[in-house]
């Protein structure tokens, strides 16, 4: 018989697992890893709100995508265009960024799998006499290691020609040059920290769902068990 067991700790672990997976996925897909040098606006470009010249624009560069401005000569204006600069894996600007993409993708796949499984832990707490929480916690720890490897390798690619075109000639491995880090990089770091927190917290979720109070309610014949 399936017993639906919901505790404060298990629900918090489930929500954190889902948030971490989405945060890492969004960061990986974003083009806001590096914010490039400011490019001055042309004299014909004006701000619609103030009527004055537009502020200098700073293009952004991701692992495989970028955002930049393109000119429309007939309209004397520019639009921001975002999309992948690499159509294939081999076109990613640096071998280090290719390795970063592999490690991040592996970590994100594991996190998404755990997030999907975590939803069903309310009904199924063990498989083949092994706690799902413990297994998921182990997988989250492994995913965190993949994410760390990816984030360590990423700055090594700042010396590639693509990064130099955005960050200036002083950019090199682990040196930003004229660039600054975008929100996607910080989101990836925050998600990695939360991944290890989830891995540790999974043990607390397992303890909460197998506590004596839960067992007492199961013995009383309850199918829906909600505990704080």
From TrEMBL:
Keywords: Fertilization, Membrane, Transmembrane, Transmembrane helix. One of its GO terms (cellular component) is membrane. It comes from the Eukaryota. The keyword Zinc does not apply. Its main location: membrane. The chain crosses the membrane at residues 12-35, 96-120, 132-154, 183-203. One of its GO terms (biological process) is single fertilization. It is a multi-pass membrane protein. InterPro entries: LHFPL. It is found in: Membrane. Belongs to the LHFP family. This is LHPL2 protein. It comes from Pomatorhinus ruficollis (streak-breasted scimitar babbler). The gene is Lhfpl2.
